[in-house]
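Exercise 7. Given the components listed, write out the predicted structure of the assembled complex. Treat all entries as one system.
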Amino acid sequence: MKKVAIGVDIGGGSFKLGLVDLNGRVLARESFLTNSVSGRKAQLDVLAAHVAHFIKEARKKALRVRGVGIGAPGPIDVERGFVYFFPNIPGWKDTPLKDLLEKRLKRPVSVDNDANVMALAEFEFGAGRGTKNVIALTLGTGVGGGLVMDGRLFHGPRYSAAEIGHLVINEDGPMCACGSRGCVETYVGSGYFVREVKRRLKRGAKSILKKWTKENGKEITPLLVARAARRGDAFSKEIWRETGGHLGTALAGLANILNPEKIILGGGIAQNGSLLFKPLIAALGKKAFPIAARSVRVVPAALGVDAGLIGAAALVFAEHGDF
Amino acid sequence: MKKVAIGVDIGGGSFKLGLVDLNGRVLARESFLTNSVSGRKAQLDVLAAHVAHFIKEARKKALRVRGVGIGAPGPIDVERGFVYFFPNIPGWKDTPLKDLLEKRLKRPVSVDNDANVMALAEFEFGAGRGTKNVIALTLGTGVGGGLVMDGRLFHGPRYSAAEIGHLVINEDGPMCACGSRGCVETYVGSGYFVREVKRRLKRGAKSILKKWTKENGKEITPLLVARAARRGDAFSKEIWRETGGHLGTALAGLANILNPEKIILGGGIAQNGSLLFKPLIAALGKKAFPIAARSVRVVPAALGVDAGLIGAAALVFAEHGDF
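Answer.
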């Protein structure tokens, strides 16, 4: 019987579910909007109903469901499958998610945070295939991270490892929401990125962005700044040069400490190709030790929006030793 | 039969050898000055003779020698036991140390760099006992590092992991010998530390150090600055506050990424107690994530100068699964 797992990607916007096979293929999908169902209890009910439906469908197709994996948007006690809280979904404080679902579903449930799940997905099925040591970063509003070391997700004893966004690259840098200064997130997190662009424009920088935002009513976003840079806007090109440089500094530190084979970049900011990657790779080459720099490749994530549910399913396969 | 291993600590000053048991006790010692024997070939001859003598002694005492472990002062290919070079001992470029010694001694030989060996020693027998995840730093002229993760030394695929001294904490910081800027080594390496103290004194800072160096002919060293700080010298106290703060920033980044249980500090700079540890722990508490900060303890190394040969012996025990 062909082995499959049910992957669940919990997000502030929606819960996504997929029936995923050992090759990382999504055989079936379902989803529901997080806000369409109010409160944790109802969300768990709907989630369980979707999972039950998948299990029934799998049985019809003679697929063997190994378990349910969940990628969750907040800090998790991975061993107990316990949710501390979700910053963007109210009502989930201190939820024994694994216990609750295992009781209902009579299937093994694995839970990990979304950044680790993304790292595992890319490692098993995406840009990290064929390696043993991968660092994966998700560049969004914040910067999430996951570490695969010697072929396994590394959590640290209290499951709080891989907070790569909060590596300090400039002690005198901007204040970070975490209370520190100059964390890499304060340079490449999209919120900080946009704030810095606006600050410089207000202080008189010349850029086509002024015209686009004032006359055409557009919002400053990393994507808009990328578009301006590609049109030759010097200000926007400089912004990307700096952003790539800052990220390169952080990756050089990571390469010196962990000597990874691949560093995989996902999320919106990472989708700007050479605007980000060129200055980043230059900084990495200059700032990392030669052996570390030579042995690492920095690549964009390969799985896109499916990484969450594929990686969640991969948690199950990894736990059962199916790979 | 009681198991022992022969630990060898190769240094620019001397080669130290110890017969070490499974509890990390040094049962016998021998050593020779590196410069008293000229050239790699002769150094290997003398080393092999000492090892042969230990093996004979062990046989008399009915001890079972599991092998020879070597801590080496330079980059190593750990799997092949291959020395790339030793910055402070000429003539060792591209030496297949493991192969050469195994042929001569008919015993298994393990080789690793001195920072990893120190980390392993402290993990098995010293300040890291009873944990699974340890970061060890040696604060000398440079800053060396070793990582024990999930109970094992972590090398990275090209054996270049744990170069913790070259984590950048300030992109705009001082130039580092490695080609980057603001590596933690440029703040806490003793060479940089002394240079910065001299620079500030020359620029007019008031300090008792001026009197001590001019009238009493003393050299500026971290130890001297520590002595001045303990005597209440405000300048020297500030220097240590800053040094501890910089190291704390680096350790906060490491704690956020690796979530260690212990961070162990060895080397001269680490022997200045609360002068270093107090500002360091304050910075770590402020800059690391609460979970990471709460779950880590920063402690001084416990094994002192024996860490090298004890850790070298531990390489052998670890390889044979004796622990």
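Discussion: Chain A touches chain B through 51 residues (CB under 8 Å). The two ends of chain A are 16 Å apart (CA to CA).
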